[in-house]
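Section 5: illustrative case.
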């Protein structure tokens, strides 16, 4: 694959993203749905590619549609590369507070998010065990798709393509990305509905009216007079020596490199000690270990480097850029043929996952959160439906001035959540675990863990609520 093909593929992806942004700004109904521009770009690429336009007879290239096969091959590789950049960006430049402080602020949200996440394993594995495998002949690993796709999101779904292939479940990647798309779209749609419903019915303690959502928030732009209040980042190095962006990108690369060394070490230990009975780390992707590498880099920088050269704003921009490219490329290369072949299992998984998340929000969140249950819970619901950015967006809508602990708690909880589920080590290992241990033992483990988080939330944090009242 030539450098020209790679470069031109990125240019066309950029054009799709710009068109997606224009559509987002220009069409009011997209504004009200808060559809991210990256999803619009991906859907546009999917429509113009071989899966839709090509099937309608438009064949600018042999594969059908407006894009050559070599370009689609580049786009297919991007999610697996960029997911490591995204996860390596989580903790770099961010001061890691004490575990005690994080638990005090975000404990209820940690318990609720883990309950939803492990519950997605419980309902997903149960669905696969009793319906998907016996009636539709799907791989038992399909039981992990709900957690991988909904709380894991597009990045995790696309990043695990190699793991799906290694267990002879190639269709899992397309099903996972498709489910992630359903999750994000319904999550944003239902989330906006819930924010409006909560404001009208007195469930929100900050937002008093749906009309409080500004035009800037609807269009996704920042007016000129407010741009100075939203800096992209701060320069920390002199450009004549090294560009600040370069420094940040380099440290993210170091974090990924550390993750790679850790992963290779784990694979070596597994092969030396127990690979004859259980293969786990062999199927583990790089990105959760890249997040561990980021923590190691951040601890080193905070303890051993006296100059503050890492800026959170710039790291967030690198992470956001990577996520936009990942989502657009993952959706644009989605195989509708696979989803069409498994349309009924796909529909069942979508309905079950959405129903589980909504039931947890309405019936469990108010009983776990000691205060501001709506503001806290709606963010966790948004993340459980597909992506952290959606969860943060819903919190910003419900609590635009950060008057509640929801936003800070949402940020703190990521260390306790993302390292484990939602794209963490358990998520990455869930497919090989189901294959190695079997569906029933894995279901039992997930049920026990889910119940543990539920009891902790109800009796510890829910008990605090009663005391406060």
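Designed sequence:
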């Amino acid at each position: 694959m030539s450098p020209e093909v790679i470069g031109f593929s990125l240019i066309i992806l950029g054009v799709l993203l710009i068109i997606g942004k224009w559509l987002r700004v220009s069409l009011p109904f997209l504004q009200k749905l808060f559809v991210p521009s990256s999803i619009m770009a991906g859907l546009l690429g999917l429509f113009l590619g071989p899966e839709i336009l090509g099937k309608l007879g438009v064949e600018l290239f042999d594969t059908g549609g407006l894009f050559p096969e070599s370009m689609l091959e580049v786009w297919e590789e991007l999610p697996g590369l960029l997911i490591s950049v995204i996860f390596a960006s989580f903790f770099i430049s961010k001061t890691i507070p004490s575990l005690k402080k994080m638990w005090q602020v975000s404990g209820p949200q940690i318990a609720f998010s883990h309950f939803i996440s492990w519950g997605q394993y419980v309902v997903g594995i149960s669905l696969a065990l009793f319906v998907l495998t016996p009636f539709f002949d799907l791989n038992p690993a399909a039981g992990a798709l709900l957690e991988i796709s909904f709380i894991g999101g597009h990045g995790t779904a696309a990043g695990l393509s190699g793991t799906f292939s290694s267990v002879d479940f190639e269709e899992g990647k397309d099903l996972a990305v498709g489910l992630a798309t359903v999750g994000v779209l319904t999550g944003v749609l239902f989330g906006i509905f819930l924010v409006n419903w909560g404001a009208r019915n007195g469930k929100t303690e900050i937002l008093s009216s749906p009309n409080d959502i500004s035009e800037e928030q609807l269009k996704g732009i920042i007016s000129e007079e407010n741009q100075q209040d939203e800096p992209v980042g701060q320069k920390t190095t002199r450009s004549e020596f090294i560009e600040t962006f370069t420094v940040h990108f380099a440290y993210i690369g170091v974090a990924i490199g550390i993750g790679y060394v850790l992963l290779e070490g784990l694979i070596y230990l597994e092969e030396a000690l127990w690979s004859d009975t259980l293969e786990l780390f062999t199927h583990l992707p790089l990105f959760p270990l890249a997040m561990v590498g980021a923590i190691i880099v951040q601890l080193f920088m905070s303890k051993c480097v006296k100059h503050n050269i890492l800026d959170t704003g710039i790291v967030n921009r690198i992470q956001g850029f990577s996520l936009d490219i990942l989502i657009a490329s993952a959706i644009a290369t989605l195989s509708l043929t696979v989803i069409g072949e498994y349309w009924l299992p796909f529909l069942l998984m979508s309905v079950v996952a959405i129903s589980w998340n909504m039931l947890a929000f309405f019936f469990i969140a108010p009983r776990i959160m000691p205060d501001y249950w709506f503001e806290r819970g709606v963010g966790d619901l948004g993340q459980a439906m597909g992506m952290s950015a959606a969860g943060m967006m819903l919190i910003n809508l419900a609590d635009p001035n950060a008057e509640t602990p929801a936003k800070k708690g949402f940020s703190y909880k990521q260390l306790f959540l993302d390292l484990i589920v939602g794209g963490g080590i358990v998520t990455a290992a869930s497919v090989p675990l189901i294959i190695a241990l079997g569906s029933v033992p894995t279901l039992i483990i997930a049920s026990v863990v889910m119940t543990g988080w539920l009891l902790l939330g109800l009796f510890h944090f829910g008990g605090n609520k009663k005391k406060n009242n």
